[in-house]
Amino acid sequence: VEELQKPLVLLPVNDNAEDVVGGSHWSLLIFHRPSQSFRHFDSMGRSNVSTARRVAAALAPLVGTTTSWVL
């Protein structure tokens, strides 16, 4: 996917664990290509961190990095 090759990739993350519409909280996961790291921003602190980590782990091979993580 061409968008994943950009220097900065912004990914909204929802806490919905089901396969239907839902969830109650959104946060922002960013992949910063120059530092080869994911960064997570959450207005509720660490509320959505486990979901963001799963998304980062799934995307790491697609962006060509390991899951380097910065909170």
* Uncertain ranges: none
Distance between the termini: 25 Å
Average of pLDDT: 86
What is the subunit arrangement here?
single chain
Beta-strand content: 25-35%
What is the overall shape?
globular
Q: How many β-strand stretches?
A: 4
Q: Strand order of the main beta sheet, please?
A: 1-2-3-4
The number of helical segments is: 1
Structural class: alpha+beta
- Profile the largest sheet: 4 strands, mixed
Order of helices and strands: EEEHE
Radius of gyration: 12 Å
Outline the structure in words.
The mean pLDDT is 86. The chain is built from 1 helix and 4 strands. β2 and β3 form a beta hairpin. 14% of the residues are buried. It has one helix at residues 49-63, and strands at residues 8-14, 26-32, 37-41, 69-70. It has 71 residues and is of the alpha+beta class. The radius of gyration is 12 Å and the shape is globular.
Give a short summary of the structure:
This protein is of the alpha+beta class and 71 residues long.
What labels describe this entry?
30% strand; 1 helix; alpha+beta; 71 residues; four-stranded mixed beta sheet
Blueprint (SSEs and pairs):
Blueprint: E1 8-14, E2 26-32, E3 37-41, H1 49-63, E4 69-70
Parallel strand pairs: 3-4
Antiparallel strand pairs: 1-2, 2-3
